[in-house]
Design brief:
By secondary structure, the protein is mainly beta. Among the domains are: about 1-30; about 30-105, Immunoglobulin-like (Sandwich), CATH 2.60.40; about 110-215 and about 225-270, Ferric Hydroxamate Uptake Protein, Chain A, domain 1 (Beta Complex), CATH 2.170.130. The protein is built from 11 helices and 53 strands. It has a 22-stranded antiparallel beta barrel. Helix 8 (about 410-420) runs antiparallel to helix 9. The protein is globular, with a radius of gyration of 34 Å.
Length: about 1050
């Protein structure tokens, strides 16, 4: 028995040991496994180069290679942690598998759900201020410049082109007019550096106001040197669209108060691209386009012109056949061409665990459709960051650009080619340009375009150096020094031209002249901040405190000359009469302290407070410092328990804010100081050169301030298929500055004073929908904004009522600051052909109102509508199917009156026989009973021949040429095709996209001018709604290719 038991026990022990050995062997086989895999992007199926694969809880890790492949040694029970910048991290349990084909999804939080705000970032879902973002991928396909890319994209942001000339400025207004004297363009911040226009202290255009009494030089020290700049530069013209990572628009006071005295008109934050970890990625974008004007006025042919003027002069002098039908010159056709644009951009992005870099080179060659006018830009960018440890990093963002703008005289060439007489040939039988003395004011636009020299050359460096130290897990310290260095040279050389006078004698028609303007502008900014992010259970704090110093210095010199020995001499110093027209050195500085704290509790309740103190050298010491507080609150209603049953509701947030911001640049560089201007040959002082006080000092000059209340609702429904953002705002501008006349006994003519208050009130709606989300996808975005404006206080006690009328502007309590104040044109009397006018007493008369200088006639002027539209918006649709994508944008504007000065100019005729006219003139009154809007040739408002006077039939002081500016425009349409990655990898490419797009292809409008999107007074939103033979925008078709190298 014992023997049997022993044998059985030995057998079981042997079997057991064999089992244990097998388990040990199997366990050993599951250790140190060779795990392989491939990582690709879930959206484009491209390899995720440089992704990090780490065995969780260890330091064992590798990086994916150029093709997204990786190999790592791990155990079967290990977990692989996979991460890459720009992608959501993922964890994979190994188990028994040894190979993994994985797709990484782009990190929507990092790419789309983080908003860049002043001096920091915040999760978009936690915002309690009004902040809007631009879809960069969307506008990259359709825009050459940043400002034009904003048109129709964001509710409450209105974009009007100052000119169709390449490189020209645009007027951008956010939530209406904010100031009557300062530029109403928003503040632009590029990588933390404020960017302004050439020659401007705090805006994109030159400021009014002279230089201080201590600065003077040359023959003119007037600070109104903006008048000498014949072309207003676009402050964003140096930016390459391919360099931009994000664009955020800060609209309400809580969002903008962190920028204090510069945020009243809104803030646009532009962040450029950074390098990403991984092997170098090289991308090219190459495109070309052709363009023409969106519209062209119709003018008389040679025969029509001769018939009209023969009839006109016979009515004056009874002389028949003043002209013979001997010429039919189409000046406009000779001045216009098909504009061709070439755009080439190359970028490189790469990085390691320690450092990343982003490099770009770009070239833009953009023709104007006006002959011999073009814009060229060369730009380069170097963005670098080095991480020396987990706590310390430093880097730079730097862009260099050079622009060469030969479009300086495109406006005059465009204008004069429409007005030039078709009876005059471009050249005579000897091939010389024809100039007629009585046509001196029109010149020869073709000769001027081809022979004269006009250009602006700008060199610009914008960038910063920064260092960042993570002192604690919740505290980050950052210091940065930024710079905007601009050197600008404009040169104009008008050649001497000879021609025939009325006696058929050869005389000098146009004297030779030249001018050159040099502007050097240096702006420095130093920012030091401490940012915190701390969580205490359900309490989250996100804040920043900091200090900023900004200084601007500008020197300006303008020289000119006449009487050149020959047309071949270009140097101003070689002329017989050189002179210095102006020489100014001016500067300002500002020091600021600021702080912001955002708080969130239980992911339901949010609150924020911001405070900034600015001190500016522009103001007297008693008014130098001012504080700008703001407050906000938010309530995420969707996270309340009583909302749980509404499963279709993803997110619902109610927010409100109250805050103050301001404007410091409205007084110019030296708004509080007395200002001198030099006068030559003053008769009252024996023809001596004198210094004359231009503006009285005002030591009590204060900041313009803006108070804004904003209430908003953010909704997300049906798994984020529907998103709705609604905002109501009330923005009050306080202590606005205008130039006001003062009594003559004071010894001055005018003084800048804080005497106006104004209010803007409006509503904004943005609706985004995912209409179809299958293989065929369709998404839409509709934005809508309505703004009303009115003057609420106007302190003109002691001054004449005329102070309230400045040029085209008219200010009256209770009325819009952009109201039209005009005489009432009542059409044409069908019995006599004379114009009719309506007076304040209701009577109708053929007697035109008196000159604008006659104060008594103000009573016979009426408010005739507003320059600004009733509402604006845009409607975007994106359709995609497999590798195809179609993107369309309709922009629209309703209401808003445009003074059609183009029409007025082309209906103006005098005893100067060389002005062409609109074909509309052919509908003039002819016989009793004829109903028309064109008076007879010689009517009661026509000045007598040879006698100067105002022809009120074509005066801009009447509503005859005031038209509805409403429109719907197909702003952009683009079609792209993305090649399958598996195909293009065979030829060594990472990506390949072909695209075609159209801009401004179709416009639906009742406006009779060429282009309803005009702003004849440059970037001044205050004087919007004027079309004075303004160059219309381009209608363009573009084709291009994007190439990504492996």
């Amino acid at each position: 028995m014992n023997k049997i038991f022993y044998i059985l026990f030995s057998f079981l022990l042997t079997i057991s040991s064999l089992g244990v050995q097998a388990q040990i062997t199997k366990a050993q086989e599951l250790k140190n496994l060779k795990i392989t895999g491939t990582l690709k992007c879930s959206e484009d199926n491209q390899p995720v180069v440089g992704a990090t694969i780490i065995v969780k809880g260890t330091t064992n890790g590798v990086a994916a290679d150029f093709d997204g492949n990786f190999t790592i040694v791990a155990n079967h029970d290990d977990i692989l942690l996979i991460s890459s910048i720009g992608y959501a991290s993922t964890e994979i349990k190994i188990g028994t598998k040894t190979h993994f084909d994985l797709s990484l999804s782009p990190d929507n939080v990092s790419l789309k759900e983080i908003a860049v705000i002043g001096y920091g970032v915040q999760e978009r879902r936690d915002l309690t201020g009004a902040v809007s973002s631009v879809n960069i991928e969307q506008i990259e396909q359709v825009a050459v410049s940043v400002d034009n890319a904003l048109a129709g994209q964001i509710a409450g942001v209105q974009v009007n082109s100052a000119s169709g000339t390449p490189g020209s400025a645009t007027a951008i207004t956010i939530r209406g007019i904010t100031s009557l004297s300062a530029d109403n363009n928003p503040l632009y911040i590029i990588d933390g550096v404020p960017v302004y226009g050439v020659g401007a202290g705090a805006s994109t255009s030159f400021q009014s106001g002279g230089v201080p009494m201590v600065a003077m030089g040359g023959n003119s020290t007037s600070g109104s040197i903006g008048a000498t700049s014949e072309f207003e530069r676009n402050p964003l013209a140096s930016l390459n669209m391919e360099d931009i990572e994000s664009i955020e628009v800060l609209k309400d006071a809580y969002a903008t108060a962190i920028y204090g005295s510069r945020g009243a008109a809104g803030v646009i934050l532009i962040t450029t691209k950074k390098g990403k970890k991984g092997a170098p990625k090289v991308d090219f974008n190459i495109s070309t386009s052709v363009a023409e004007p969106v519209g062209v006025p119709d003018v008389l042919s040679g025969d029509q012109y001769v018939d009209f003027y023969n009839d006109y002069y016979s009515a004056y002098s009874n002389k028949e056949n003043y002209f013979s039908k001997s010429a039919n010159t189409d000046w406009f056709d000779a001045a216009i061409r098909t504009a061709v644009t070439t755009n080439v951009s190359a970028t490189v992005s790469a990085g390691t665990d320690k450092s990343t870099y982003f490099l770009s080179l770009a070239y833009l060659d953009q023709d104007s459709y006006v002959i011999n006018n073009d814009f060229q830009r060369y730009s380069a960018r170097i963005n670098y960051e080095y991480k020396s440890s987990e706590k310390f990093r430093f880097g730079n963002n730097l862009t260099l650009s050079s622009t060469d703008n030969n479009s300086l005289n495109s406006g005059s060439v465009y204008r004069n080619s429409l007005l030039a007489s078709p009876h005059t040939p471009i050249k005579d039988e000897y091939g010389d340009y024809v100039f007629v003395q009585s046509n001196k004011d029109r010149f020869n636009p073709i000769a001027k375009a081809k022979e004269d020299i006009n250009f602006i050359k700008d060199k610009r460096v914008i960038g910063n150096l920064y260092a960042e130290y993570k002192a604690l897990s919740w505290l980050t310290l950052r210091s940065e020094v930024g710079m905007d260095l601009m050197s600008s040279k404009s040169y104009n050389r008008n050649k001497e031209y000879k021609g025939l006078n009325d006696q058929e004698e050869t005389v000098v028609i146009i004297d030779g002249s030249a001018s050159q303007t040099n502007i050097n502008n240096l702006k420095l900014v130093v920012n030091n901040t401490a940012s915190i992010y701390k969580e205490f259970g359900e309490h989250v704090f996100n804040g920043v405190v900091g200090q900023s110093f900004e200084k601007s210095q500008e020197d300006y010199v303008r020289i000119s000359a006449t009487d050149f020995p020959t047309n071949d001499v270009l140097s101003i110093g070689s002329a017989n009469e050189p002179r210095v027209d102006g020489a100014v050195l001016r500067e300002w500085a500002m020091v600021s302290f600021f702080g912001r704290m955002n708080y969130r509790w239980k992911d339901k309740y949010m609150a924020g407070v911001t405070y900034r103190v600015d001190g500016s050298s522009r103001f007297n010491k008693n008014e130098r410092y001012v504080g700008f507080p703001s407050f906000s609150a938010g309530w995420r209603i969707s996270n309340e328990n009583f909302m749980e049953r509404y499963t279709w509701l993803d997110d619902m947030k109610l927010r409100a804010s109250l805050g103050f911001s301001g404007i410091s640049g409205s007084g110019g560089y030296y708004g509080n100081q007395g200002q001198y201007v030099s006068r030559e040959n003053a008769k009252q002082y024996g023809n001596s050169n004198i210094l004359e006080v231009q503006q009285a000092s005002n030591p009590d000059l204060k900041w313009e301030k803006t108070q804004t209340v904003d209430v908003g609702l953010d909704l997300s429904l049906f798994d984020s298929k529907v998103s709705l953002i609604v905002d109501y705002y009330n923005k009050k501008s306080i202590d606005m500055l205008i130039e006001s006349s003062v009594p003559l006994y004071s010894g001055y003519s005018s003084q800048t004073q804080n005497i106006v208050d104004m209010e803007n009130e409006g509503i904004e709606v943005s609706l985004s929908t995912v209409n179809i989300d299958k293989e065929f996808k369709w998404t839409s975005n509709l934005n809508f904004a309505k703004n009303t404006n009115k003057i609420t206080k106007l302190n003109l006690d002691g001054y004449v009522a005329g102070d309230a009328t400045i040029g085209y502007a008219y200010y009256k309590v209770g009325e819009s600051s952009t109201a039209w104040f005009l005489y009432d044109w009542h059409g044409v009397d069908p019995l006599t052909g004379n114009p009719l006018w309506k007076y304040a007493d209701g009577s109708i008369s053929t007697t035109a109102p008196a000159s604008i200088n006659n104060k008594e006639e103000y009573d016979n002027k009426f408010i005739m509508g507003d320059r600004m539209p009733d509402f604006t918006g845009g409607f975007t649709n994106i359709f995609s199917y497999k590798n195809w994508e179609l993107n369309t944008l309709l922009s629209f504007s309703y209401g808003g009156k445009i003074m059609n000065g183009t029409r007025a100019e082309l209906l103006t005729y005098t005893d100067n026989k060389n002005r062409n006219l609109s074909t509309e003139i052919l509908d003039e009154w002819i016989i009793a009973g004829h109903k028309t809007e064109i008076p007879k040739k010689v009517n009661k408002s026509t000045p007598p021949k040879g006698v100067g006077g105002i022809d009120y039939t074509v005066s801009r002081q009447t509503d005859r040429f005031l038209e509805d500016g409403s429109y719907i425009r197909l702003k952009n349409i683009s079609l792209s095709y993305r090649f399958n990655p598996d195909i293009i990898r065979k030829i060594g490419l990472r990506s390949l996209v072909l695209y075609a797009k159209g801009s401004n292809l179709v416009t639906w409008t009742n406006y009779s001018g060429p282009d309803p999107e005009v702003s004849a007074f440059g970037s001044s939103a205050t004087y919007a709604g004027n079309d004075e033979l303004t160059i219309p925008q381009q209608k363009a078709i573009q084709i291009g290719v994007k190439i990504g190298l492996r």
